[in-house]
Amino acid sequence: MRNLSKKVVDNKAALRSIGVALTVFGGLSMGGCGIRQTAKVGLEEPSAVPTWNRVKNAAIHAVTDPITLGSAAASAAVFASGTDEAISEWATTHHPVFGSKQGARDWSDWLRAGTIYSYYAGLSGEIAKEVAQNGTSGLLTTGLAGGAVGGVAAGANSYLTSKLKGGTGRLRPDGTDTRSFPSGHSSTASVHATLASRSIGRLGLPAPLTVGLNSGLGLMAAGTAWARVEGECHYLSDVLAGAALGHFFGTFVSDLFLGVGSPARINIRLDPSKENRTVGAGVSVPLSFLN
Question: Fewest Cβ atoms closer than 10 Å to its Cβ: which of 67, 74, 139, 206?
Answer without folding.
Answer: 206
